[in-house]
Amino acid sequence: MKQVMYNQKGEELSKVDLPNEIFDIELNTDLVHQVIVAQMSNARKVIAHTKDRSERRGGGRKPWRQKGTGRARVGSNRSPIWRGGGVTFGPTKNRNFSQKINKKMKTKALFMGLTSKVKDQEFILIDKIEITESKTKAMAQIMKDLKVKSALIVLPTTDLKISRAVKNIPKIKTIRADSLNILDVLDHRYLIIFQDSIEVIKGTYL
Questions:
Q1: 15: domain range?
Q2: Span 130-143, mean pLDDT?
Q3: Cα-flanking dihedrals φ and ψ of residue 200, to 5°?
Q4: Average pLDDT of span 125-137
């Protein structure tokens, strides 16, 4: 599979062969959906938490004696039927939403996402990006030259200059090639990938 390679100014340089085992995979939407749901579930943070009667403060003393008062027997004023008492069936932080997905399934779904970007012409292959300083203005100009407004930039290695320069640009994000995942790929319109990143993807996922 041939793909045009550009420089950071958006000028065509040459055509490069893409590995078919990564960028030419038969799509399976059910698998992609399953992996995305699992990844989102595993990233979910359990915030809502209500206290039951054991977590409420107080309630150590029996409010009144068991017999002889004419009132109903009660052992604690932190019972769920009392004001200030515990909550019976409220949400707790002990919930677990994680789902297990096999490594092969995650890898195959990722390759399907990369394939869809190539087929939809939302895949931009560039040789490199060079900026002298971590300036938002410099990266914004590069994105303008490449004619993209929403993009995931796949770096072969950590590049703090580029990562810091895109922080204030909405809908632009950087990720290392060895941390690539289907959710980030499909969350952005375009995929900007370095030529060296392809070798990293091959070495990591194949």
A1: 2-28+100-205
A2: 91
A3: -65, -40
A4: 90
